[in-house]
Specification:
The complex is a heterodimer of chains A (251) and B (319). Chain A is of the alpha/beta class and 251 residues long. Chain A has one domain: 3-Layer(aba) Sandwich (Rossmann fold). Helix content of chain A is 30%, strand content 28%. In chain A, helix 3 packs across helix 4. In chain A, 48% of the residues are buried. The longest helix of chain B has 17 residues. Chain B has 319 residues and is an alpha/beta fold. Chain B has two domains: 178 residues, HUPs (Rossmann fold); 118 residues, 3-Layer(aba) Sandwich (Rossmann fold), CATH 3.40.50. The radius of gyration of chain B is 22 Å and the shape is elongated. Helix content of chain B is 27%, strand content 29%. Chain B starts with a strand and ends with a helix. In chain B, helix 2 crosses helix 3 and helix 5 runs parallel beside helix 9. In chain B, a hairpin with a 2-residue loop joins strand 7 and strand 8. In chain B, the strands form three sheets. A nine-stranded mixed β-sheet of chain B has the order 9-8-7-10-6-1-4-5-11. In chain B, strands 14-13-15-16-17 form a five-stranded parallel β-sheet. Classes of the chains: A alpha/beta (251), B alpha/beta (319). At the A-B interface, helix 3, helix 4, strand 7, strand 8 and strand 9 of A face helix 2, helix 3, strand 7, strand 8 and strand 9 of B. Strand 9 of chain A pairs antiparallel with strand 12 of chain B, so a sheet runs across the interface.
């Protein structure tokens, strides 16, 4: 099967996130972007399916400072094609991103679209479900355990408390991946460098379409509660304080 | 139709989900302020009797079809799109759950309605709705202004008591549109979690590990610590997604809700989905090198010391 994996680059949450002067968006000048972790799982799952059943994997991303690196990494891992979409602002909403992705998919042959189930910046909803709806193909969110059986796919959709529903579908279909069957593989830097010399990214410019239909009137950092009492001292002293707290509570 | 607020009812195995009552309660409050009406939309097969617990609503719109018996994203989206197309409600509230995710964005895209996701608060301002979303792993909140549209609301945002009203409102049957019956996505069954593992909901001491433990190999020292404390190891979602621990050990929104006497976290940042599952622990001690990690907002005690230093030291000190 031919699989397309649309991915989002999102701000690295380990870094401190600053808000702009108008308090309507992040201060994007200093942001470091990285691949949305669920999209990393979607790429892994796509590669696993390709390795077991043949077909191809194409990865599609919107242009950011780090997009080239992320796409070359996907090629180094085994993707056959990588497409960079230009022409959209960095603060493009999920709706705008989905419409742009769908335009690009219109020129590609695919059976299955795999993407991360959600991303940290999905204020106006999840990219995958929006895309499926614009493409008029069925979608399932929070998916794991994808398998190919003949011309059908089987999969699990996760609910809370460890309960799952199983589904069967005849492509085309879009699946919002929760977790790949194994930890996303790692591409050695040397391999990524080599790919950068050998391969080229496809680049497609897209005209942005209207976005989410709502405006952000205020973005803020949530008020901090009383919070934890921070333990201080050397490692030994802190470990000692934790041990004392545990022993006291255990009684 | 004016100011109609529509609530999408979530149910599984014939039981209505708590989040439905949370939305009904909040919807009732908003409707009383706007002078509008509150309508619950129920999809199912032979589910009409469930309307008896939806007394908080003024009306129940019920769509019956065999493909709606168990949640099917394709069939349910088609039904919701048709109901909203016919009624043109002012506001549609959907739970931001596994099921709701498949409905809210589909409705937004197919009816060209604005959508605000991950909402934890809803308020009115003039004729608009102000929806507060929890984004970026809980580090950032946004207030979005909606004239009309769809909001998907995180579970646990509102109390459910106000929405639990006995009594059957007027039930209006809505014929399933043709595209509910057609389609290529088929529900084939529910899978209950496997038993046999430690039941972390019944364990008094939990050692919770997150992404910060870096490698599966480092689980062994966590097991040692848990053993010394007479407890068990549990984790946040990424650890289970990486298959380092079974699903039975996952704490949080898509895992289990726990309430142990002691909850000791290592390398967990404290995303809202995790907090939802452990905030009621009696004593929470958090170890994370990121001093801005949200987990410290919820912990009783914390340290930014490296877990790889703390864990061996602590394990050595315990009897």
């Amino acid at each position: 099967m031919n699989i397309v994996v649309p991915i989002k680059l999102v701000p690295d949450l380990v870094e401190e996130l600053e808000i702009n002067d108008e308090a309507t968006d992040l201060e994007r000048d200093f942001l470091t972007y990285r691949i949305n972790e669920f999209d990393d799982h979607a790429i892994e799952e796509a590669l696993q399916l390709k390795e077991a059943h043949g077909g191809s994997v194409a990865v599609v991303a919107l242009e950011r400072e780090e997009t080239d690196k992320v796409l070359y990494t996907a090629l180094a891992k085994g993707a056959d094609k990588a497409v960079k979409i230009t022409g959209l602002d960095e603060d493009a909403s999920s709706h705008t991103a989905a419409k742009a992705m769908c335009k690009v998919l219109g020129d590609m042959e695919y059976d299955v679209v795999l993407t991360g189930v959600q991303a940290a910046d999905d204020r106006d909803g999840q990219l995958g479900v929006l895309m499926a709806s614009y493409l008029s193909i069925p979608h399932v969110s929070v998916v794991s355990d994808i398998a190919i059986a003949g011309d059908k796919l089987t999969l699990h959709k996760e609910y809370s408390g460890g309960v799952m529903a199983s589904f069967e579908v005849t492509p085309k279909v879009l699946l919002g991946v929760q977790a790949a069957r194994q930890t996303p593989r790692y591409a050695p830097v040397s391999r990524v460098r080599q790919i950068m010399k050998e391969a080229e990214l496809d680049e497609v410019e897209v005209e942005a379409e209207p976005g989410a239909g709502s405006i952000v009137r205020r973005m803020y950092t949530p008020e901090k509660g009383e919070g934890a009492e921070m333990l201080d001292g050397s490692t030994e002293e802190i470990a000692g304080k934790i041990a004392a707290l545990l022993n006291e509570k255990k009684g | 139709m004016g100011q109609e607020i529509l609530i999408v009812v979530e149910h599984q195995g014939g039981e209505i989900a708590d989040v439905t009552f949370e939305l009904l309660g909040k919807g009732r409050e908003l409707a009383s302020k706007t002078g509008g009406t509150l309508t619950a939309v129920l999809f199912g097969s032979g589910m009409q009797a469930a309307a008896a617990s939806l007394g908080a609503a003024d009306k129940v719109v019920y769509v019956d079809h065999e493909r709606l018996a168990d949640f099917n994203p394709e069939a349910c989206s088609a039904a919701l799109v048709a109901v909203v197309g016919a009624r043109e409600p002012w506001l549609t509230l959907v739970p931001n759950t596994s099921m709701g995710m498949d409905l809210a964005a589909a409705l937004s895209a197919r009816r060209d309605l604005p959508l605000v996701a991950y909402a934890i608060e809803l308020a009115l301002d003039g004729g608009n709705v102000i929806a507060t979303s929890q984004l970026y792993g809980g580090k950032i909140y946004t207030e979005s202004v909606l004239e009309t549209g769809v909001v998907s609301v995180l579970g646990g945002s509102f109390p459910d008591a106000a929405g639990r009203v006995e009594g059957t409102p007027e039930v209006e049957t809505f014929d399933a549109p043709d595209d509910v019956a057609t389609g290529c996505l088929r529900f084939t069954g529910l899978i209950e979690p496997e038993g046999g593992d430690v039941d972390i909901t019944q364990t008094e001491v939990l050692v919770a590990v997150g992404r910060g433990i870096q490698s599966e190999d480092n689980l062994a020292m966590m097991e040692d610590l848990a053993a010394k404390l007479g407890g068990a190891v549990c984790s946040s979602r990424p650890i289970v997604d990486n298959k380092w621990l079974p699903k039975t050990r996952q704490v949080g929104k898509s895992g289990l809700k726990v309430k142990p006497r002691i909850y000791l976290t290592f390398g967990i940042s404290g995303a809202p989905e995790h907090i939802e599952g452990m905030k009621n622990a009696e004593l929470i001690i958090a170890v994370n090198t990121d001093e801005t990690a949200p987990i410290f907002e919820h912990a009783d005690y914390g340290t930014t010391e490296d877990l790889f230093d703390i864990v061996p030291a602590l394990t050595g000190m315990l009897e």
